[in-house]
Structures are given as C-alpha cells and as structure tokens.
Design a protein that fits this description.
- This protein is of the alpha+beta class.
- Helices cover 15% and strands 35% of the residues.
- The chain contains four helices and 13 strands.
- The strands form three sheets. It has a six-stranded antiparallel sheet, with no helix packed on it. A five-stranded antiparallel sheet has the order 9-8-11-6-13, with no helix packed on it. A two-stranded antiparallel ribbon has the order 3-4.
- A hairpin with a 2-residue loop joins strand 3 and strand 4.
- The radius of gyration is 16 Å and the shape is globular.
- The chain starts with a strand and ends with a helix.
- The model has no long low-confidence stretch (mean pLDDT 96).
C-alpha cells in the first residue's frame, strides 16, 4: 500500500497473476493494511454499485465519530475514484486526489474516516465494491456537491456527469462548512488514535 498525498488515504497496487484461466490477485491483506495505516479495518458492511458511463456518486462522508472508512476497488470496467479532505482544520482541507480504478490494474483505495469520497464511471457497467468500517446510518451520512467549482475536481472531459437527485441537491463545500456539517480535523485525528489503540 502506498500513501496518497492526502493524510489518511492509501492506494493498493497489487501484483496480479494471469494465466490461461484468467488472473488472481490479493486485494486485501490484514497485516499489510495494518502496517500501512496503523490499525485494522473493522468490516461492518460491504457494498456493490453498478453505474453507467458518466455516473458520479458522491461526494459522501459521515459524522466522526464514528465516521465511515472505505476500502474501494473496481471489479468491472473503470472509474475515476476521488478522495477529498473535508476535515476542517486540516492542512489539506479542500484538497482532492484522483486514482483510476479498473479491472486491469486492480488497484484499490482506502480512505479513513472524515475524508470525502466520490467516483465517476468511465465505462458502462462499472462495478465498484467497497468495504465499510460502519454500517449505513442516514442520520450520520452527508454530502458535498461533486461539481462545486470551489472543490475544483477535474472530472474527465467529454463525459457528461450524471448525478442522483440527492447528490445534485448536496450543498457546496462553503455551505457545508458554514452550517457545521463537515468533520473536524482534531476529532478525526483523535478517532484515528483510538483505533490505533
């Protein structure tokens, strides 16, 4: 696992073993995960989404604590996966980083609690699976508009973004900050330390 430029985010770049039957790779190893992040991934829920080309899901995040860490990979097709630092007080606040996840490289992204997550499907039937540290709780789940110019996410040119009504109605980054919706950097760091024991 390699750390991304945003604190609390990593990318797994596994070695795949192809042969005449297909291929095999390990997309999660507990010991390597712990070595990289300093704690174990508590699995509470596993999700699978299938999206047509252009669909944008996110930017999603959850209240911290407990937050919701995610370990994400694309098992069919390709997506542009984006991690956004939404932690108020973070030196990287408002910064984002994108990683292409696809069924060729088999890369995966882990993002800690308090970070925002979004992706755009680059192919039809883009199938994304993600492991979550906590279950879905609507009262703790929030969003920021993925096309907010203040975020400035560079979505691929030539692909029209398709958002759900809920994501299209999400507040801007400035509005989410002004209304106290965003997690605090200090609360997130304290939560990470508790997880590290």
């Amino acid at each position: 696992m390699r750390a991304l430029d945003i604190e609390g985010a990593w990318v797994l770049e596994p070695k795949a073993f192809p042969d005449e039957r297909g291929s095999f790779h390990e997309w999660y190893r507990g010991a390597e995960f712990r070595e990289a992040t300093g704690y174990d991934l508590d699995l509470a829920q596993a999700n699978c989404s299938v999206s047509r080309r252009g669909v944008v899901r996110g930017v999603h995040f959850a209240d911290v604590p407990p937050g919701q860490a995610k370990y994400v990979t694309c098992v069919r097709g390709a997506v542009l996966d984006v991690v956004i630092d939404l932690r108020v007080g973070s030196p990287d606040f408002g910064r984002w980083q994108a990683v292409r996840l696809d069924d060729d490289t088999r890369h995966a992204v882990f993002l800690a609690e308090g970070l925002g997550h979004a992706f755009m499907a680059l192919s039809d039937d883009a199938t994304v699976v993600y492991l979550c540290s906590t279950g879905y709780a609507p009262e703790r789940e929030h969003g920021v508009h993925a096309l907010d110019p203040d975020l400035g996410i560079e979505w691929p040119e030539g692909i029209a973004p398709v958002l759900s009504p809920k994501d299209a109605a999400a507040p801007s980054l400035a509005e989410a900050r002004r209304t106290g919706l965003l997690p605090s950097y200090d609360a997130c760091r304290a939560h990470y330390e508790r997880l590290r024991g």
